[in-house]
Amino acid sequence: ELKEIEAVLDQEPIVNHAQIIAWEWVANYYCCSLGEVYKAALPSALKLESQSNICVNPNFETTGELNGEETALLMMLQGKGQANIREINQFLGKKSSYATLKILLEKNAILMEEKLKESYKPKTVSMIRLAKEVSSPDEIQLALESLKKARKQSELLTYFLSATIFHQEPKTSLLKKELLEQAGVSEAVLKALIDKKILENESVEIGRLEMNHSADQYLYELNEVQEKTLLELKQAFRSNRPVLLHGVTSSGKTEIYIKLIEEVLAEGKQVLYLVPEIGLTSQLITRLKRAFGDRAGIYHSKFNDAERVEIWFNILHDKKDSYQVVVGARSAVFLPFKMLGLIIVDEEHENSYKQFDPAPRYNARDLAIVLGQIHKSPVLLGTATPSFESYYNVKLDKYALVELNERFQGIEMPEIVVADIRKATRQRQMKSLLTPSLFEEMKLALENNEQVILFQNRRGFAPYVQCKTCGWIPKCKNCDVSLTYHKFRSGLVCHYCGHTSSLPANCGECHSEDIQTKGFGTEQIEEELGLLFPEASIARMDLDTTRAKRSFEQMIYKFENRQIDILVGTQMVTKGLDFDHVRVVGILNADQLLNYPDFRSFERSFQLMAQVSGRAGRKGKRGKVVIQSSQADHEVLQEVVDNNFIQLFNRQMHERKLFRYPPYFRLIKLVVKHKNRDRLDLGANQLADLLRKHFRNQVLGPEYPVVGRIQNWYQKEIWLKLEKSKVLNQNKRMLMDAIDQVKSLPNNGGLVIYADVDPM
Ligand code: ADP
Ligand code: ZN
Ligand code: ZN
């Protein structure tokens, strides 16, 4: 049945065809609804809201021509002030409410607040300039004379003139706000001048986005190896396959990207440059702004909605002077690109490209590849430590491979050594948390006025606290996880739900007072370093110290300018930072990485360690890396030392195949949640049983994950390990049907089930 058109929202489409194709792919591939994709993709001001408010037109004069319903609605609106469509539907019934609204709108009796249009509108500012009546020097002179008795007004006008037409860089108008501030007068004084028709006010549209960078003329020349790599990349693009650039850290990948971007812009096409976390890329953005000025723009979730709308339209309308190159975190894949000429996925191995929550649980790297097909655009995946997925695709010839094995200016890769924590402990040589080798290296570097980066994957002071007498460990009341001790906040914090409580004085079980902290986090390291290196200036970079706006950038800036000698941090310090004077990098405890219970833990350990090592000795001297571990002869550590990605890859891939893991098999994780534990068990079993009928031994679980309860939601997981050759779409349909079926069973109210395709 055809529906009536209620309203035309936009003069032109705000979503283009390429987007719709991509979004449908997302919904299908990641087992979610198209609505969920739309919701994630569009800035909220662009979403149709039935909240749009309706009120009575104050200028409307009632004539006798209104029928009963029309009068009733008008009275209702008058009483309430305003109402939205949903409320009006309830008031009149859906059928007659549309007809009534239509007539009232035609008669101009009501107004529809154009909420959507409002947020499209660019921001305006008030500018002050000379009034038309005062345009010649004589007229200005007259105006000044007329103000002899009004001292303030005369001052303001004199200031205005000195800052505009008599300024050494003459201009015609000034921002009202600045004028008032700088002249130091009140608004009333200005108003007097406007009333006297000496000055006038003009509102001027301005963009919401910071635009003021002009590109530097000067770009670096590529060296010979980089030039060769650039050619190889362009050659590889011609094969119409995604290209993996496997280039060691500090080889100049970013400089090569800049050259590629330059060429694409010259063809008048757009570029999408994806980065794993926008917060961590201030250095990259500076480099791109230097090269492209305002043609390079940033997009991320910290922008407010109005700013996002403005960016959206800049890209949709393909404005040549802004946002031709979009640097963005994963959500930038949803922007309305018209004609992409290049997609770069930097640090393609990063798992932050995957969205965990809410749906769509997509991987932006993989969506980027789909976008490349839609736009017929080259896709470049760059990294020093490829994901196994991408590397396997190279082996299958689905991706092309280009390698870059030389650091810029031939600087050697850092020397990596493994320091045995167990041995050092046995010989009583540990200096607090440092092995003798790390301690000595740090001392040497500091003496030579060089810098140190230390990596520890845990924030807080101690991962947990424990009663020495009975072993009791305080747990979160909402989650099945132990609480982390934060000394600065002098309390225990749950890293899953944020719940805080004070450090107990006594054991919750045996009331002993002997409670001790266990393990160590960044906060404790910072404190201990203060004792070991009292002369050094030490800073900590983790979630706790970078919450405030710009605090991350400030820390980077200070480190760049050597106001900080030692930087201690979580994985934030591993990503893409480019400093000139870092001599030593220390990994305080590799065991936590290696022992993490996940089939990807070796792959990830290698990536993390290789990336953080890459921060050492990028300019000038060769750097040194010390990896502390109590499994000093672990094979993965040896592979990090040798920078032998291939060996790790081959060995691990053998296991992946044997135990049916990606990239050989496709994983789908089904998460089942309920507030009630028994209900959860019941629902999860029902789902697993149903799935086993179809997928048989490809179903694992249900099983509690490492943390079985978060924020009072109990959760279990069911894993599907599907053979890749199988018809994926058909399987997914099966899966979604099974989920719907279980959800609709009696007693399963309150049961939440979702699918996570290619979980990370
Ligand atoms: P990667 O992205 O591979 O880690 P970068 O592009 O960050 O490497 O390069 C490392 C450092 O070397 C950066 O400071 C960069 O500006 C500099 N660099 C790389 N190539 C050149 C070049 N051709 N000319 C001048 N500086 C370069
Ligand atoms: Zn106890
Ligand atoms: Zn919690």
From TrEMBL:
Coiled-coil blocks: none
Cofactor detail note: Binds 2 zinc ions per subunit.
Residues holding Zn(2+) 1: C467, C470, C507, C510
GO biological process: DNA recombination; DNA replication initiation; DNA replication, synthesis of primer; double-strand break repair
Principal EC category: isomerase
A molecular function (GO) term: ATP binding
Domain Helicase C-terminal per the UniProt entry, residue ranges: 480-659
Record keywords: ATP-binding, DNA replication, DNA-binding, Helicase, Hydrolase, Isomerase, Metal-binding, Nucleotide-binding, Primosome, Zinc
EC number: 5.6.2.4
Catalytic activity: ATP + H2O = ADP + phosphate + H(+); Couples ATP hydrolysis with the unwinding of duplex DNA by translocating in the 3'-5' direction
Binding site for Zn(2+) 2: C476, C479, C494, C497
Domain Helicase ATP-binding: 234-404
Necessary cofactors: Zn(2+)
Gene Ontology CC: primosome complex
Keyword Repeat: no
Role according to the record: Initiates the restart of stalled replication forks, which reloads the replicative helicase on sites other than the origin of replication. Recognizes and binds to abandoned replication forks and remodels them to uncover a helicase loading site. Promotes assembly of the primosome at these replication forks.
PANTHER family attached to this UniProt entry: PRIMOSOMAL PROTEIN N
Subunit structure: Component of the replication restart primosome.
Protein family: Belongs to the helicase family. PriA subfamily.
Protein name: Replication restart protein PriA
Organism whose genome encodes this protein: Sunxiuqinia dokdonensis
Taxonomic lineage: Bacteria, Pseudomonadati, Bacteroidota, Bacteroidia, Marinilabiliales
Gene name of the encoded protein: priA
